[in-house]
Amino acid sequence: MPKVIIDPDRCKGCGLCVHMCPKKVLVLDKKKLNKKGYTPSTPVHPDKCIGCAICAMMCPDCAITIKKEKKEGK
């Protein structure tokens, strides 16, 4: 299962990842502020992630990484 990893201190809360995610995995976390005073994105439905990495490609701050686990036996 793919995992979305977001570096909250690099995120400036632009929302591009939230807008572009086809499975609506991410939202801007209005309850948190990072060190720069921005509301970072956060995965709210990580189980829906398909590992397409569109969010990571759209992020202008390179704050998102997609980690894909290797299947055993392959």
Give me some keywords for this one.
74 residues, alpha+beta, Alpha-Beta Plaits, two-stranded antiparallel sheet, 14% helix, metal ion binding, 4Fe4S_Fe_S_CS, iron-sulfur, iron-sulfur cluster binding
Q: Your description of this structure?
A:
The protein is α+β, with helices and mostly antiparallel strands and 74 residues long. The chain has one domain: Alpha-Beta Plaits, CATH 3.30.70. The chain contains two helices and four strands, in the order βαββαβ. The strands form two sheets. A two-stranded antiparallel sheet has the order 1-4. Strands 2-3 form a two-stranded antiparallel ribbon. The two termini are 15 Å apart. 22% of the residues are buried. The mean pLDDT is 93.
The strand line-up of the biggest sheet is 1-4
Number of strands: 4
Please give the share of residues in helix: 10-25%
Largest sheet: 2 strands, antiparallel
Q: Which fold does the CATH topology refer to?
A: Alpha-Beta Plaits
CATH C-level name: Alpha Beta
Shape: elongated
Number of discrete domains? 1
* Helical segment count: 2
Query: What is the residue-mean pLDDT, rounded to a whole number?
Result: 93
Radius of gyration: 12 Å
Mind telling me which CATH architecture this is?
Answer: 2-Layer Sandwich
SS strand fraction: 15-25%
Q: Which residues form runs of ≥5 with pLDDT under 50? A: none
What is the string of SSEs from the N terminus onward?
EHEEHE
Distance between the termini: 15 Å
Helices and strands: which structural class? alpha+beta
Protein name: 4Fe-4S dicluster domain-containing protein
InterPro entries: 4Fe4S_Fe-S-bd, 4Fe4S_Fe_S_CS
Pfam families: Fer4_7
GO molecular function, one term: metal ion binding
